[in-house]
Amino acid sequence: MSAGRAALAGTVGAVLRGLRARGLLSGVTLVMMVLAVAGTVVGPVLQQAATTSYTLTRVDDAPDPQTALTWTVSSGRQRDLDRLVDDAVAATGEAVPDVYGDAEVTLFAGPFLRFGDGAQFTYLARDDACEILEIEGGCPTGPGEVLVNEDDLGAAAIGDTLRVPRLGRVEIAGVYRTPTTADDWLFTARLTSRPAGVTSAYQPAPYVVTPEVLAGLPPRSWAPTVDRRLAVPPDLDDATFDRLASEAERLATLELPLPRGATATGSAATNTLGAVLVDVRAQRDAAASAVAPAVVSLVLVALAIILRLQSAAAALRGPELALAALRGVGRRRAWALGLAEPWLLVLLSLPLGLLAGWGIATALARAWLRPGTPLVLPAASLVAAAAVVVAIALVTALAVGQGMRETLAARLAGVRRPARGARTGLLVELVVVALAAVLPLTRLGTDQRGLGVADLLLPVVTAVAAGLVVTRLVAVAAGWWTRRGPERPLAVFVAARALARRAQGTLVILPVAAAIAVAVFAAGVDGVAAQWRGSVAATQAPAAEVWDSPLGPDATLQLTRRLDPDGEWLMTAAALSVPGVGPIVLVDTPRLARVGTWPAAWLDGATAADVADLLAPPAPLVRLTGDEIALTADAPAAGVTVTLDVATADGRAQSLTLGPFAAGSSTQTLTSQYCAAGCDVLGLSVAGPDDGEPVALSGLSGDGEPVTPALAEGGWRDPDAPDAPALDVDGDALVAASGQDAVPALALTALPVIEGRGAGDTLTPAPDGSADPVLDLGQGGGAEPLPVEVRGTAESLPVVGPAGLMLDLTTFSTRYRAAPALVEPLVLVRDGAPAAVRQGLVDSEATLRADAATTRRVLDDSAYAQALRLYLVVGAALLLMALGGLLVSTTVQLAARRRDAAALRVVGVPPRTLVAASLWESAVALGAAVVAGTAAGALAQAVLLPSLSLGVVDDAATPRVLPDLDWPRLLVIAGAVAVVLLLVSLASSVTTVRRARGATLREDVG
């Protein structure tokens, strides 16, 4: 065998023996290298897959009419209706991509004018019409039968006959309802009735007939429609989506020629696929920038830990290199021996890291993303993986170089003296600490959005700097504690001595501090993002369900009180949009705490009950319901009358006069239908023969039921003397003077209001210069400015978001009556509402607008939320790295700690004391690491969160991201990690002490 082959075989043998001898250290080092390479794969792959999944989900969840394609067919010279339809289906099938589904054909004919009133009748036929329509009665089976929409039935009934254009006399076989969803009928508006307008005639919904009836009508009246829904297979990519959007735009002007002069004209009026794609791509860049710090953190922390591991490995290989030097191995050969073992691990880490990264990304995609979402390995990942491998190789070379610079005498002596590179290492540590101190300052006072290179380094640099500083401080503090003398507890003294004399004892601080810092940062980002999504969901859906009410706000309020008298399930709200004024939301505040959703982060931790108290009027408004109104008056003389000014459920003002009353206590009744559906008492006036005489009013009731709250609870005041005290109350009676007018207290005091953080100039200074601002709604209805009292500034408000105002509905309605076109009444429904309550909403023709669960699911499935989950994966990976660092630290220290334990046992120190000393040593090191890591992670979070794009915040109705630190959660995470690592240290300590015997010292001497 030649000398070169022998040398190579010797080197390979030495490498294999070294790997086997240091199996745990080599294994942990390889795991760190693999994780570093895997991080370059997981981040980009998962981020791109999350974007694809979000795009697919958004398009799939979009209403079908917004993504479908439709054509209207004209007959030309074609006289065969079936042939015309077949030609249209074939032509449209060739014109659209394969992702569109089968054709849904609906046959139309018309419109045909009815002489006399000009009404326009349309006829419809579809093979499965009776299966997909909700009908009452039968289905048309012959030429003389039709289905009529229930809105057009009028005074007719099933079985009656009608005369209609072109068809003559037909019998009503059944009645159908307009579909409420597009599940079976793509465009439900085609089946709606349109009443006559100023410039348009009455257009009843299409009459459903058999196809044979349409075939017998004039061909030029035929207008079949061909609809194709978009299917969303998981393999759609950006290029395909772009093509689909372009196809939709092209269809707006596309006319497909058919045989015999017929045509199929496309329409994309309702297709918004292009807008969906624009929104998705706007989120992509922000999501990518939010993920970048997680990937960078994983890679850089792995590099830092690898450096420490390779330094430990180089120290363990010192005797081998010394022996090789004694045998005459040259410097170049020594470098080869030193680098062969770590670089072999580096070479293995590249394919293993790529495979591990792909496997992790695949597992996470299956767990988090839309089933079937394709995964693509970007070229940038391969480049980044190669760069990381090169960086790892350089790091290992640096560690080996530090060991090679030690003298032969130092290696043989086994005593670790300061190396010539110690000053260089200290300088590097100082640079890292200075960088960590300067980076946060670069963010102060700036309005930068997005992240730069320095920002990506901040979490890791801060963590490493904190670890280095704490490591030095622990060593210095341990030395100071040791020099205080032996009067300290023996276990504590031994632990301090070990920390001061054995530098490896603090080896665990750096990886644990770095891992906890990034884990704290990751948990903080995840928590803030979840809180932001909860805030957005509560803004869009401030209860379990939100229903649109067809009634006015007052009638909706009466509806919810009738369906839910106890206020457990329903609550009225209304969005008010007055031209020139910011959005306003009005809520039934007494029910807010039970029905509504109010995140604590909106108003300094205030609950929904606290907000209700802030908006509550100074006194309740008296509500009266019933046809028979009764009132008791204790008058000094006969002839007293009492007039109640009320506002009915539909907002009309009415006056109800009771009396005249007899002298003394008497009751008068009045029959009136004004308050049958409920009304609010907005004023009262007392008239009598002797002005100024007191009259006691009590016992106000409707249909025999006393009003609640009672008349005496309204805090009544004289409208001409608003600053005067409220009218007297005697027991349950209101005492008013004859000839006096009174209004409830809430009609005179400033309106309590909660202002959104982004409300801006919605409120204006009072004209008289008073401290309280005013709400000027004059542009919406000519009203006087309303004085308001701001009770708080919220981050967001229900329905209207941070740009609006929030007031009590009842209080506001007493002062301002908005035009119906400016008000959007809503009903908020609590989760678990009884079926009878929900059916009452359906019967009142209320329609479901949104529900909180769906709203939150859409937000949780967004590109932001899916990409930010990577932070949690990174945090978990780094905690595993910390555990690996602890195992390595224990392994490196094992021989020295066993010698120390054996020496102390020889002089009589009990094993229990040695175990306690080892635990004290681990507790101090881990405690210092927890403190350093938590502080570093919190600092990085506080600095970077304002720049992380956790969601779309450009919309004025969307709450901003609040970078609040959840200290309890962060401390729990750090404490849990410390406990786990401490248990590992306990097991190591017990094992070390049990194996420490006097023979250990003899073996070392020998």
UniProtKB/TrEMBL annotation:
Protein name (Swiss-Prot/TrEMBL): ABC3 transporter permease C-terminal domain-containing protein
Q: Where in the cell is it found?
A: Cell membrane
Q: Which residues form the ABC3 transporter permease C-terminal domain?
A: 873-990
Alphabetically list the UniProt keywords. Answer: Cell membrane, Membrane, Transmembrane, Transmembrane helix
Q: Name one Pfam family in it.
A: FtsX
Q: Topologically, how does it sit relative to the membrane? A: Multi-pass membrane protein
Q: What stretches pass through the bilayer? A: 286-307, 343-369, 375-400, 421-444, 456-481, 507-525, 870-896, 917-940, 970-993
Task: Tell whether Protein biosynthesis is among the UniProt keywords.
Answer: no
- Organism classification, top ranks? Bacteria, Bacillati, Actinomycetota, Actinomycetes, Propionibacteriales
Main location class: membrane
Q: Which InterPro entries match?
A: ABC3_permease_C (IPR003838)
